[in-house]
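We treat protein structure as text, and this decision shapes the records that our systems exchange. The tokens are whole numbers drawn from a learned vocabulary of local backbone shapes. One such record is reproduced below, unchanged from the form in which we store it:
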Amino acid sequence: MQEFNGKVFLRQAELAERWGCSQGTIINYRKKGLLPFFRLPESNKVLYPVTEILGIEKQYTRNNSKTKGGDSPNKAEIKKVKPCVSSPKKEWRI
């Protein structure tokens, strides 16, 4: 982590390690506009603000608690289906 102008930032490698992905994935997210970042002019160093990264993590972290009234609406329904049984084959005599 680095502090700059009173704010705390993560380096690209630190963010990749935190999220368990490659640095290339972080670069792709940044290029698609999914991640806020900071870069000084004429510098190759890219920094990601910790406060906004925490906000992204909070937004996309699932809550494992059950909803009221039963199971979550995203669960697939389980249907019972009768097995398909074909009629026995006729015996052939030669």
Observations:
- Strands lie at 2-4, 7-11, 38-39, 46-49.
- Residues 2-60 form a domain with the Arc Repressor Mutant, subunit A fold (CATH 1.10.10).
- The CA atoms of residues 67 and 73 lie 9 Å apart.
- The first helix runs from residue 12 to 19.
